[in-house]
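In this supplementary section we document a worked example of the pipeline. Step one takes a protein sequence of length 373 as its only input; no multiple sequence alignment statistics are reported here. Step two produces a three-dimensional model, which step three serialises into structure tokens for compact storage. The input and output of this example are shown verbatim.
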Amino acid sequence: MSKRDFYEVLGVSQDASQDEIKKAYKKLARKYHPDVNQEEGAEDKFKEVKSAYDTLSDSQKRAHYDRFGHSDPNQGMGGGGAGDFGGFGDIFDMFFGGGGGGRRDPNAPRQGADLQYTMTVEFKEAVFGTETEIEIPREDDCETCNGSGAKPGTSPETCSKCGGAGQLNIEQNTPFGRVVNRRVCDQCQGKGQTIKQKCSTCHGSGKTRRRQKLNVKVPAGIDHGQQMRMAGQGEPGKNGGPSGDLYIVFNVQTHEFFDRDGDDIFCDMPITFAQAALGDEIEVPTLDSKVKLKIPAGTQTGRSFRLKDKGVPNVHGRGTGDQMVKIRVITPNNLTDRQKELLREFAEIGGEEQVDEQNENFFAKVKRAFRGE
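The serialised model returned by step three reads:
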């Protein structure tokens, strides 16, 4: 199968800027990353997006791709013509660690890292939504030095080796002529500044890690495994760049009476043998109230009834699910002699065999559901 056009993969035009390419890549990488997306084919899409970005984010590789596409004119004897240096980028990378064209300025603003927090909520809190406060460990500017990394009363100094550029230009003679290779300054590690007297709190990093409180509004209808994004609540950016985002993954606890599947709620309701045989009207607990349910005569164990709009509100606002009530006919125990006699007579008339089906714990769960627990 032929490869798709890299611009098409990232969803950008051929004259897209590097910022547009980077934004498109981050959006798609987050969508298809195997740690986040477990759907079939997501990993292949992630690899395709990564391959497209690796090419288009590098100016030399992008220029080569714009001219030749996925084909490689340098294979075999048919190399490029005179003056065509599109295929030499890999050679420079191999021997000299790459040219300066694709290097990122170490002092340029960079977005902070994203954070992930797993929040455990109770079953009904997930159904109706709630508001709570959480604490997350997050890196922030050191309060002692205000983020400078220098001891109070002193300041960082301009790096004497790179003159504050954070990078060094190294000239080398190669078979192709004199090549200037740009590298990160080894004295200031690309910061452009050096700190002679470091802050005793952050030890020169300018950052400290502490727990910070955040108010979180859990949306009604959130389900187990779903996540919510809080923009700008991740790690702070570098060199004045924007903060990352916080992703809250929800762990919804189970309920002893109600089960959930999507926006629908399921429960089992016990009825007596007499109610099942003769019919009756019973009360059924729902998530927020009690409703009447008519049981037709002759109802069998396992029959289900639908309570419209008694399920979970959709987290995206698309209506409300239903509640499915499954009937369980419970055989009585501790019968009196007279009751046993009547049942034996009933069984003889109908030719039936008696079955003992005792489940006191089940009744206890139903009672607690009626109390709204």
